[in-house]
Amino acid sequence: MRPPVESVRISPQGRDQLIKLKRQTGIEHWNVLCRWALCCSLRERTIPPMQISSTDGGVEMSWKVFAGENPDALASVIYLRAVSDGFADSPDGNALCLRAHLHRGLGYLASEKDINGISGFLTRWTQNRRQGSQ
What we know:
Oligomer: single chain
Shape: globular
CATH superfamily: DNA sulphur modification protein DndE
Structural class: mainly alpha
Radius of gyration: 14 Å
Number of strands: 2
Order of helices and strands: EHHEHHHH
Strand content: 5-15%
Low-confidence stretches: none
């Protein structure tokens, strides 16, 4: 499957959120944190805001690094979500969908104040999932 983007670009605010998350969780690799953020946003039924700031001074990583071991699965989910969220059915729409969900997810994860380490991080997000499904 064709990736939605060649390079994943993250705003300076997103970079700052990644730094905070790395410190809080102990997760060393930003691509792992970015995948968590994307999944946290994708599980929301609402469309993410389209207000995405410039990526100048932010972070950039290749799709291959971002997607890790699941590039086809992530690309498929992004394509499906781009259609259901009303993004243009085009490469630009898919890229915008990815950026919007990634940045919303980073905001969600970075807003947590009482997470100390990976176990707190996992506990918080698995509890939220269970509560949402009841």
